[in-house]
Every structure is written in C-alpha cells, then in structure tokens.
Amino acid sequence: MTRTVLNLIALLVAIGLAVGAGLGQRPQENITASAVVITVIDATGTAVPVGSAQRVVSLSIFSDRVLMRLVSGQRVVARCAWSDGDWLLPWVDKPSLRGAEEIEALLALRPDLVIVAGTGGPAVQQLRNQEIRVFCLGNLDGWATAQRLIAELGTLTGTSAAAQRLLGEYASQEAVLAQAWPAVPERALYVGVTAAQIFGGTVGSGYHDVLTLAGCSDVAATRFTGWPTLSMEDLYALAPDVIITAQGSADMLRRLPGADRLFQQKTRIVEIPGENLNDPGLGLLQAAITVRAKLTARVGADSGGARPPDDPVIP
Hints:
By secondary structure, the protein is an alpha/beta fold. It has twelve helices and 14 strands. Helices cover 40% and strands 17% of the residues. Strands 9, 10, 11, 12, 13 and 14 form a six-stranded mixed sheet that branches. Strand 7, helix 4 and strand 8 form a beta-alpha-beta unit. The radius of gyration is 23 Å and the shape is elongated.
C-alpha cells in the first residue's frame, strides 16, 4: 500500500474523530504512515494526546460536573475538593484534591489523564515530566467556552457521543428558553455586592451570558467589560429596568448609600440562587432559565395575576 493511500486513510479517520468532537476545538492530527495521533489543544497551548482515560483525576468543579455526565464513575479516581452540592452525591466518597500542586497524592493515584482548572501553575509541567497527560481548562468566561470544553472533554475521554448528546440537551433548553423572550428585551444589569463595594459582570464573563440567554439586554456591555467595579453613580447612569443579583444580596444593595434613588427610577431587583448564577459553567443556562421565569412571573403579577409567594422580585 502506498504512502499516499496510507495518509488518505489516516486523514479520513482524523476527520471522523474531529467531527465527533462537534462544538469543541477541532483536534489536530499528526499523520504518519503508521499511526494517527489525535490531540486537543489546552489553555496553555499544549497538544494533549487523546488516549486511554481509565484513571481520570478531575481538579475542577466544571470538569467534575461534566465528567459525571460523560463517563462511568469507576473511571474517575479523584475529584475536585471544592465541588459541593447535591449533584456531587454519586462521587462524595471519592478522594478529593485541591489542585495539581498535590503531586505526591496525584502520582499515588496513577492517573492517565489529569484535568485542571485554569492553567494549573508549575505543577502541571512536573506532572507532564512524569509522562502524565494534563489538560488545562483555562478561563471559564462564558457559555460558548463551556460548550467547547464539554466537547473537548468528550474527545479526551473517548465519549464524544455522550458529549454531543449533552450539548444537544442544552441546545433544546436554549431553544425553549428563547421562545419565552419578550418582544422588547428588559434592560438588565448584573450586580454583585459586598459590605462596601459593588461589582458587575458583563461582556467577557458568564454573567453577560446569563442575561443574554434569558433574553435581556446587558446595559453594561456598551461601557464595561469583564468584572468592573461599579459606583452607585454608574448604576444611576446605566438606569437598568432590572438588576440581577445573587440570593441574599438585595438587602445589602438597598442598605448602600444612595440606593433609594434606584428605586425612585423604578429599578427592580431579581435574586437568583448563587450556586447557579456564580457558576461559570453548567449553571449558566439554569441561571438564565430562572431569570426568565422570575421576570415572566413579575409581568404576570403586574398584569393582575397572583405573584408566587416565593418570588424574590423586590420592587
């Protein structure tokens, strides 16, 4: 068989795997006459080979939640120590690690794939020097990144079909959510509050995606990016119809000097459970669904309908 034919066969295999990766970054293929090596580029620019993933260590809350949907529990030998919540119940007894810097504990687990949050720091190279595959997730900056990473994790773990099914579920939820969008989007602003500081979340953050997925217009998007520190004067100037914030933050906002003027502008506040609102991964879509449900319930109440007793919309 000629080298050209071999290369053609290899290329066809690589394309098939790349298509299976769906929305993820397209795997690179290094074609030789004897083998095809499929790699996925991680946040550090490293080409991580696709291979056996029977002993996976997950060091990110995001990867814990995704892998729970993609692979059998037996294939994950350790989880992220920061993961919490009812969703974690099937993995609650697994060994937990805080990060890649726990080198000795990691090596003792004999992993064939380690998934780390961000870029992982110097410990990542130490693991790679031990010929352990490490995939760095990078910055979780929104819904598009979350979707891409779901597909990439599917490729790395040999579960591309499961990843595509999961992405299909989310696409269906997005389509249903879009049907509930109003004809005129609410002018919305995400606000986080501490004892003496206000901060936002707009383009380049998951909070922006929560607003847009919910069918709102992000009023901060024309003036700010990322996670800006905001003054009360910024809030006056932005003049949102509605402020979206985490549960428990509305009272903190109302106690800040000058907050009365916001309510004179008839700005409403909607509180969303922080576990979803502050999750830059899979919680984004659920937060958006909750935002739209709360806003729709408020419209019904303003039209004369009964407001749900647990509706946290604060006039």
